[in-house]
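Entry type: protein chain
Record version: 2
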Amino acid sequence: MVRASARHILVDSEAQSIELKANIENGEDFAEVAKKHSQCPSKMQGGALGSFGKGQMVKEFEDVVFSSPLNQVQGPVKTQFGYHLIEVTARSE
């Protein structure tokens, strides 16, 4: 079974998501940005969601996690929860 590990930042607006992504791309630490801004309880772990398999996350989120390159911030990705920035940290086939 394919598994992945990822971390994310969840916010209400696409504009905030884009701004935070730019901050990360300009050198801010993903985990620190998550702790300051994410609305998900995972912010306490710097946005880390741990390891999960297909079918455990909402489709829009999962599509990105199982198709994008490792260690590159993806997003904003809109789901029913808001806007996510997603970084896939590991994936096993």
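Comment: The chain has three helices and four strands.
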